[in-house]
Amino acid sequence: MSHNWDSSRRPKDPLGWSNTRQLVIQRAGGQCQDESGCTHKGSDVDHIVNLAAGGSHDLNNLRLLCTWHHKRKTSEEASKARGPRLSEYRDKGIHPGLV
Predict the structure, then answer these.
(1) 20 to 30 A Cα–Cα from 10, which one of 23, 47, 49, 73?
(2) Is the residue at 72 inside a domain?
(3) Whole-prediction pTM value?
(4) Distance (Å, whole) CA 31 – CA 37
(5) Number of domains comprising the chain
(6) DSSP E strands, the chain
(7) Residue 69 and residue 31: Cα distance in Å, rounded?
(8) Count of CB atoms within 10 A of residue 77's CB?
(9) Residue 31 — φ and ψ, nearest 5°?
């Protein structure tokens, strides 16, 4: 049941996503596929190239990650998308109140 007041910004899963997800899990043997050689159980299907950057739901763009690696990757992508913080542009001199 969908509500008009549903505030989730997460896009709806594409048609057949449940089957695609199962294929990714089976292909990975249930293990995290992070490049670090993580040996934890994978639980999150990750878009290697995220959708906002032009990635797709194609199997070649999907891999299985443990929750820790998936959150870390998503956080890094979000930081890059936000760009430099305002503090990086400010003069790093002495605070005017301390002069």
Answers:
(1) 23
(2) yes
(3) 0.74
(4) 10
(5) 1
(6) 44-47, 62-65
(7) 12
(8) 15
(9) -105, 145
